[in-house]
Design a protein that fits this description.
3 copies of one chain form a homotrimer.
Chain A lengths: L10 H20 E3 L5 H7 L10 H23 L7 H27 L6 E3 L1 H21 L5 H25 L8 H18 L16 H23 L6 H27 L8 H6 L3 H5 L9 H29 L9 H21 L3 H4 L3 H5 L9 H30 L26 H9 L2 H8 L1
Parallel strand pairs in A: 1-2
Helix pairs in contact in A: 1-4, 3-4, 3-5, 3-8, 4-5, 4-6, 5-6, 5-7, 6-7, 6-16, 7-13, 7-16, 8-9, 9-12, 12-13, 13-16
GO biological process, one term (chains A, B, C): ammonium homeostasis
Protein name (chains A, B, C): Ammonium transporter AmtB-like domain-containing protein
Function (chains A, B, C): Functions as an ammonia transporter. May play a role in the elimination of ammonia in the gill.
């Protein structure tokens, strides 16, 4: 089935090995344990006043593990909805995530601040690397089924680099808040991926259309991904906020936003179907938009009620996007968005950025008390200008959109080179191109075993 | 397949939107961040003696996440064992849980104590809301496959309200211990659900009997639910116990109870089968009874050995219940209990309440030392009367049974109104009534693709 | 299908009940809460200087839960790759793990130190018991599909006992470091299991060969196991290291090792396939070897770069082992290793032991500072001889190999007795022997329902 032009025999091993060797060399040269992971440094600083329970590990590792589950199980299984692309969905997700988190450690370290020429790593850098990986996996959703693993790794190389630069501009230069990544992760990942899939437009993709859909069991596998993303999103948004009240508040705001989002998703999914039937695509995806949409404002004093309003809106626009916008994007703008990332990450990400800007513009010392500087970092007493802060948040969104679209454009053209073994139009959404797929179906093998030819005759007579 | 009377086109969206709007208004009016989530309050109270690591978040959030997994993955996938009801099992579980946790926040807040007219929320209220949701999902198990999502939401409205009242009577008025909810969650949820399904009795349910069973893969999906419930039950029972030794001890007692329960489940599952074969229904459900049965006594000095005895008994009665009691309940008492919640939550819940009462009645200051008040709250030195405490525990069980049966009766009759789009007897346990179900099976689509008509002829000749 | 000789009707219940009764008696006689779980002891020791957040629970319980997930979901689902053995894979994994963790608590308690004649239990003993269980499950992988549950329980009895003895020799007598169990868990479990399966060699196993393979969906279920093992391995390796920097560092080293291992696994999986296609067996297993291989050195100052080199090598040898060594082991040495545990746990375990010995031999006070004693326990200032430490690490590997092979040999012969209801050669890898398996396939039931005979005629005409 796979002709030689799609063979991964040499391309994939070569690329993986070269990349890993480069990573190992760069890590050996540049990466050091930080104060909380280094045996010498931690124990020098540890005094009776600073005990082991103050190690960053205990504040963040449970959140890290939840994020890790979202990246590998959440994104991986969410994409198994396709009937013949489960191996690739989970497998390529696994591969590009494992690469991206290493590469992100370096890129974020380069850009966000070296310490005496060294990149310091610990649980915070691990969370940040997983976050950056999340953006790559969002973009993967747009091109799912239409790209070779080599293309995906190449995409990851560029996207991680640009992610780190954009993140640096937002967090360090513009002083933006974006703890849960409405802008840096979701908006960036979505529009980057949408631009890549636009450049890779396949006019004859309908030749693989019969495989571009789900079957009963593949939808259940996808629900594993959905539910894990949904449950752990509070940990995602709160993973790198300040200790104490911000971490606690962010988790709770996200919890309420997602709960409200689920109700609006079910409501609009039934409403837009002419028989009133629910659509698994909406449940699998739109119910998560509430997490995306409080990615910026979640750490602020958004209130539970405010979070629920945002979540409700996010679920609504996401379902409506799947129903009415995605077909238009494909037919008019030639954007073939396999997973509908525009509806799950794109529009809710922008909503999240706007909500963040507005919430920041309304933040007063009266509401936040001494906690103001814990949320908005750079504040000095008496100098807090929330409207300026809100403005910078809005600029951050614009910068992110620009970086994502430009980066996706360039990366798309690089991925168009005919050297990566991309699948032909007739064999998109098909595992057998890149995987040894077991040949027989269980139903048949069981029948063969249980019923010999003679028994079959008896049964049919 | 769905006639207009079961259409969710208007009913479900209307109900969801109205409920969410009411929730948003009530949250906006009544709900405030608590001392650990409010930026101003936490930072006012934070001093050098009270550091961020004392924020409730770090004591409870990992437990909360485990509970959250049990609610959404555990309960959701446990019910996917039905061959044609996987979408509804996971999906409706998702919907009613997302609604219930919001509604529970309000109801529990109303009843358990307002602070100056406001409900305070934080990680503890999140855990309590998830707990209340658990009771609704237990009841869902009894009516699984025979109810529309609108019916389920209406059931949740009533059940959550009564749950909060019952919980208030037990914990506040009677001063009962029930950290893991043997009474408040399991006994209440089970007998409430059993009464609802009794009122909704369908004499002609056998018309859908061929769909009321599992297939190979659906049993494996259900095992995902089972195993997650089993693994995280120690976190469930310990999630809201006092910090320190009670949380630690509860988790451990539950761990041993479940381990012993698993052995008795396997033992009796093989024993009651005339070929000695294991039954997936038992493994999926009865192995969990050990967690239910130490839900009250788990925080007490039950000892590992005591926990194992309780777990062993729980597994035994649960398997025997599935084998011998469930058929009788259906044929004699007209209780159609789809998931057998009487065996998993009902009887083990009562066992747990009894074990709790006995263990409390045997508690002495000699054994608990200064820890006595950390377990039994209200104790004043020298005034500890364990036998009275045990009596109150027993009264609590009786109150719970009464509230559950009465509440289920009323709710059942409300759910009987012919306005909710309930499935007809011929289409119970069928996803296609409420969901867009992918039409083709993978095996067939693959065959079509691999084999053209000509090839098919060759194969069959 | 099952003849009487494989019936579990009496054998399994008797064994389970007898074992659990023995466990309960021994727990009742010998086991006590430790200082962190006992109500009296913890509250006596609790002072203003020692608050609840210092309870071991908060340091280790999140890690414990991750380990618990690996044991029950990770190992359980990893083995569901077989097309007709999913119930047994998850179910027997569940049974023998639930038994082993209880038995391990006793055996490890006996051997590692009684306190005034009592075994003390808390979260550390729970983690250690789960670790020991891990070794049994590794061995289970070698004999998967060829053993009855009674045989597996008997194997667990012996293996747990020997595990505890070997662990005592290594950790207490030889003072070895092995926090993540490269030696005690992986090497021991692998070579024990390989020797057992050697003794149980079945010359006619090819009669069941058609069932000894995967189907599409079973491979996806197995990926659930793989991904959970992969994600939580950092928690596994760090679960019982010292508080603070060692726990933090171990988790991070494991994270990088696994990431690098994933890239080498994909690279070599494509390279060794003549069409360049990826093999699910490699992805499911070899990608995990990086966690095994830093099980000893992970807590040391291995550096991220060092971890990546080790992970890369581990993935490489593991894939090559699956491709080239496993067939030879079967044909020449008569070792039928169903899951290929030699490639996932055996060789990477030995690699991990060697890496640990070398890293220990290179450890200097200059690098570790005051943290040296936190990693290498027994160090006194000025007396640190790393090369001797490295030697003891190497001796530990030799001891482990000897204990495992000897223990496996004896246990294998005990398991060979014809009294356990082992499956006949014709019915290996078959759930129906020990389970009530639902008879019909979903595809067919759906067809029957949707299309009546008349409709079928119309469709086919």
């Amino acid at each position: 089935m796979a002709d030689s032009s799609t063979s991964m025999r040499l391309r994939l091993p070569l690329l993986c090995i070269i990349l890993e060797v480069i990573l190992i060399i760069l890590f050996g040269t540049l990466v050091e344990y930080d104060q909380h992971t280094d045996a010498k440094l931690w124990n020098e600083n540890r005094t009776s006043a600073r005990n082991d329970y103050e190690n960053e590990f205990y504040y963040r590792y449970p959140s890290f593990q939840d994020v890790h589950v979202m990246i590998f199980v959440g994104f991986g299984f969410l994409m198994t909805f396709l009937q013949r692309y489960g191996f690739s969905s989970v497998g390529f997700n696994f591969l590009i995530a494992a690469f991206s988190l290493q590469w992100a450690t370096l890129m974020q370290g380069f850009v966000h601040g070296m310490h005496h020429g060294k990149i310091h790593v610990g649980v915070e850098s691990m969370i940040n690397a997983d976050f950056c990986t999340g953006a790559v996996l969002i973009s993967f959703g747009a091109v799912l089924g239409k790209t070779s693993p080599v293309q995906l790794l190449v995409m990851a190389i560029f996207e991680v680099t640009l992610f780190a630069i954009n993140e640096f501009i937002l967090l360090s230069l513009l002083g933006a808040n974006d703890a849960g990544g409405s802008m840096t992760i979701h908006t960036f990942g979505a529009y980057f991926g949408l631009m890549v899939t636009r450049v890779l437009y396949r006019p004859n993709l309908n030749k693989s259309q019969h495989r571009n859909s789900s079957v009963y069991h593949s939808d259940l596998f996808a629900m594993i991904g959905t539910i894990y993303l949904w449950m752990f999103w509070p940990s995602f948004n709160s993973a790198i906020t300040h200790h104490g009240d911000p971490q606690h508040r962010t988790a709770m705001n996200t919890y309420y936003s997602l709960a409200a989002c689920t109700l609006s998703t079910f409501a609009f999914s039934a409403l837009v179907n002419h028989e009133g039937k629910l659509d698994m695509v909406h449940i699998q995806n739109a119910a998560l938009a509430g997490g995306v949409a409080v990615g910026t404002a979640g750490e602020m004093m958004l209130t539970a009620c405010g979070s629920m309003i945002v979540g409700f809106l996010a679920g609504t626009i996401s379902v409506l996007g799947y129903k009415y916008l995605t077909p238009v994007l494909e037919s008019k703008l030639k954007i073939q968005d396999t997973c509908g990332i525009h509806n799950l990450h794109g529009m809710p990400g922008i909503l999240g950025a706007v909500v963040g800007a507005v919430t920041a513009a309304l933040a007063t010392p009266d509401v936040y008390g001494k906690g103001l500087e814990r949320v908005f970092g750079e504040v000095e007493t008496g100098q807090w200008k929330p409207e300026i802060k809100g403005g910078f948040q809005a600029i951050s969104l614009a910068v992110t959109l620009g970086m994502a679209l430009f980066g996706g454009l360039v990366t798309g053209f690089i991925l168009k080179l005919p050297i990566y073994g991309a699948p032909p139009d007739t064999h998109c959404f098909e595992d057998a191109l890149y995987w040894e797929v077991p040949g027989e179906e269980e139903g048949h093998s069981e029948l063969q075993e249980v019923a010999s030819p003679n028994e079959m005759e008896k049964l049919s007579s």
